Amino acid sequence: MINEKILEEYNNVKNNVGLFDFSIEGKIKVFGSGRVNFINGLVSNDVENLEKFNGVYAAFLDRFGKVLTDCIVYKFDDFLLINMNIIGRKNIVERLTNEAKLANSEIEDVTLKYALFSLQGPKALELINDIFRSKVELQSQYQSIIIKNNDEENNINNNETEIIITKNNRTNFNGYDIFVPVPMYKEFKELILEKGKDYDLKIINNETYDILRLEAKIPLYGIDFNQNNILPEVTEKAVNYEKGCFVGQEIVARVKNLAKGITAKKLVSLEIESKEVPEKNTKIMKDDNEVGYITSAAFSLELDKVVALGFLNKGFYEKDTGVEIGNDKIKANVRELCNQ
């Protein structure tokens, strides 16, 4: 079951603060006078009416409405920052680069230029303000701020440096992402760990993160869904149905307006009455018929049972539907569609 190290890390995020390193995630900056219209025409959510220093959850789709990757688009004074799963980055960079000049825009893949630290837990904001000797007050999800840093006392960097902080709850607890130039990686991480001693900070590993994100019903591209899924099968949280045209809109709108949101399958969260974690692709059954499959699962320390994400076929993905997991027919219940 859960080993002592994971239990300690989990409780630390729940009660104090945990440090995650998501530096591997994709990061793209978009510049130029046409940058907002350019990206707004490619992603599923509304970037045009997004206020500056805020972000929005969205997705890049192909013309058939299938998900090339999900992402967060942040709007700043003179650029957009797109944060995405590393799996979808390369194709998106190529696509944006090929189309940018026609849209009066410039693309810079800054994946290897920015480290990405995430502080999650009730003491995260207090620690951030201690690190920067500031009063950051980001309240809503994806709200952001740029800090011009010249902190010789903390030995962060001797030159003025731009650090981006965004509100991003990657768990059920308070959370913030910090985008730091790569040359500062070592010094800044050491600073977090040093300042974090007063807040009982711990570095959190991937296994603990899986528990936390599954409890929060957060799917991952490449694990829980991929380019074979149309967006309405995964989430509606990434869609603005009132905005202008975007790639894949016709399919997404057709599902919404003609099919009333009904798709052949949907990604849902499940609670499984067991302490044994099912493997990926384990069958979900109903009355001896296969009606879906598990995409990821973990033992929830909060619920003392397994939580999972999985796809269920039409007619079985409504909330509180009872199903069975695997050949042992372990009882499970649909809780709700996925969160993000």
Topology diagram in text:
Layout lengths: L3 H12 L2 E4 L4 E6 L3 H6 L13 E8 L5 E9 L4 E5 L1 H15 L5 E4 L4 E7 L3 H9 L11 E6 L11 E7 L7 E7 L3 H12 L5 E2 L2 H10 L15 H4 L14 H9 L7 E8 L10 E4 L2 E12 L4 E9 L8 E4 L4 E8 L3
Parallel strand pairs: 1-11
Antiparallel strand pairs: 1-7, 2-5, 2-6, 3-4, 4-5, 7-10, 8-9, 9-10, 12-15, 12-17, 13-14, 13-16, 14-15, 16-17
Helix pairs in contact: 1-6
Describe the structure.
With about 350 residues, this protein is an alpha+beta fold. A hairpin with a 4-residue loop joins strand 16 (about 320-325) and strand 17 (about 330-335). A six-stranded mixed beta sheet has the order 8-9-10-7-1-11. The protein has a six-stranded antiparallel barrel with strand order 12-15-14-13-16-17. Strands 3-4-5-2-6 form a five-stranded antiparallel beta sheet. It is about 25% helix and about 30% strand. Among the domains are: about 15-25 and about 115-200, 2-Layer Sandwich (Gyrase A, domain 2), CATH 3.30.1360; about 25-110, Alpha-Beta Plaits, CATH 3.30.70. The protein has eight helices and 17 strands. The protein has helices at about 5-15, 35-40, 85-100, 125-130, 185-195, 205-215, 230-235, 250-255, and strands spanning about 20, 25-30, 55-60, 65-75, 80-85, 105-110, 115-120, 145-150, 160-165, 175-180, 200-205, 265-270, 285, 290-300, 305-315, 320-325, 330-335.
Offer a few descriptive terms:
6-stranded antiparallel beta barrel; 6-stranded mixed beta sheet; 23% helix; Gyrase A, domain 2; single chain; Alpha-Beta Plaits; 340 residues; 8 helices; alpha+beta
